[in-house]
Each structure stands twice: as C-alpha cells, then as structure tokens.
C-alpha cells in the first residue's frame, strides 16, 4: 500500500501536480511532477453532473479553463463544475490560462522548456481514470483529495466512485486518500480499511487529535502549514502520525518541517525543493 512505498520521512509531494511549472491538475502537471523528481503528487477530484470523476480544484470553471470563450455556456454562469457533463467539460481548454497568465512567473524566467509549452496550452480537464492510469505507468504514487461536494452535500457516492476507479485502474496500492470532509474518510475506511487515509485541516486542530485520527482510521494528517510549528510536527511524528502540511512554498520552511519529521511537504515547487534537498545531501 501507499506508505509501504515510503519507509522513512522527508518526501516531496507535488501539489496539484507541479503546478508552478504546468497547468494544475492536468496530464502536463503530472508529467512535470515526475520530471521534477517529486516522490508523489496530489490531485483534486470532483463529480460532474452526469457522475463522471474529473481532476479539478475549483468549484467553478472560470479561473483555470477557457469557458468564458464558449458562447453556448454563457447563460450558465458562474459555471459550477458540478452542473456540467463530462462531454461538455471535454470541450474546454484547461491549459491556455496558464500560458496567458504565467501565474508563478516560471515561463518568463525560462524555467519551462519552450518546446513543451504548446502541449501545455492544449491541455483539457482529465478524468480520474486517465491520470491514475498514467500514474501507474510511471510508478508514481498519488494523494487523491476528494473535494467536498458542496452542490450535493448529502450525497457521499463520490467515495465509492473513487474507490472503484482505484480498483479499475489497479492503483489501490499507490493511493493515499485525503479530504477536508472527514465523513468521506470514515466511509472509505468502511469500504476498505486498508486504504491509507489523511485528514485535511485548515484553521484549527481537532480536539484530542491523536484519538480523533484513530477514530477516523487515518494515519495521515495534512494541516495548513500556517497552523503548525516544528515542535508540533515532532510530537505528532513521534506518535507515528504521517504529517504532510500544505502548501509549503517557502523552501527554508519546507526544509525545517522535513527536518522536524514531516512525512512530506505538499508544495507548488517540487522542482525547487528537490534541488535543495539534493544539494544538502551532497
Ligand atoms: O491537499 C492539500 C491541499 O491541496 C489542500 O488545499 O485548496 O489546495 O486543495 P487545496
Ligand atoms: Ca488539493
């Protein structure tokens, strides 16, 4: 299973793929994470109107697709992902925004090979199955974050659907499941208690954290990096919890957290962190 592939600590997780050097949550981001020598990658999964699983972060389509250019969808603003079918989403471009906006300045700084930019500009929204297949072919483990389905709060069917995708693509032993919706984690634990789980937390640690994680069946804890310090990490890691804070883009802070015992840090800059760690080990 996932953690058996990682016997120690100090690993690099590429957030939404290597999203500083490729359009997030696309095949290019997966490839960039592999090329950056990240240890594994994180992606976000959501359900379409017709029940397909797509890899996409935001609740709405406007930031990272060209939906505003599709006149047939103009009357469906603000374009929630969950209101579109998979066939409709296939019509969208999910890469051109990255080339046009250069959100991390990496294109301007020449940090992306010019010959791969055209391919990035053509990216679409991938299905979960497609990225899992590609990850398996690259032997590249995956942290699947199951996004809270805010449009259908009582519907927890996404959990079974994600599990079925893992089985279909033969990636069950490569996947770590995380979610801010801890009910999803409880359900996954009931479906298959061997699937490793991590609780995502944003603002405040749950009371009696260790017991809480045990009650979820979670051995991983993914807090916002803003609510932790190295002492917290040392304590929790000493209790056997795999701590992976997000999103750590300050490389000094990333190294300090890894030194303190984090299982991994989730970063937009896996290429930079990998270079830092490699330089330190020489
Ligand atoms: O899984 C860690 C991190 O991705 C959670 O926050 O908003 O980037 O999905 P977000
Ligand atoms: Ca995420």
Describe this structure in words.
- This protein is α/β, with parallel strands linked by helices.
- It is 34% helix and 15% strand.
- The protein is built from eleven helices and nine strands.
- It has helices at 27-35, 86-89, 96-101, 117-121, 128-137, 157-168, 182-191, 209-216, 230-238, 251-260, 270-281; strands at 11-15, 40-47, 53-55, 142-146, 175-179, 197-201, 220-223, 242-243, 264-267.
- Strands 1, 2, 3, 4, 5, 6, 7, 8 and 9 form a nine-stranded mixed sheet that branches.
- Strand 2 and strand 3 (53-55) form a beta hairpin.
- Helix 6 packs across helix 7.
- The chain is globular.
- The mean pLDDT is 97.
- The structure holds SN-glycerol-3-phosphate and calcium ion (CA).
Global geometry:
globular
State the separation between the terminal residues, measured CA to CA: 30 Å
If you average the pLDDT, what whole number results?
97
The biggest sheet, with number of strands, parallel, antiparallel or mixed sense and barrel status, is: 9 strands, mixed
Structural class: alpha/beta
Strand content range: 5-15%
- Show unreliable segments: none
How much helical structure, as a percent, in the residues? 25-40%
Number of strands: 9
- The DSSP helix count reads 11
Rg, alpha carbons: 18 Å
Bound molecules: SN-glycerol-3-phosphate, calcium ion
From N to C, what is the helix and strand string? EHEEHHHHEHEHEHEHEHEH
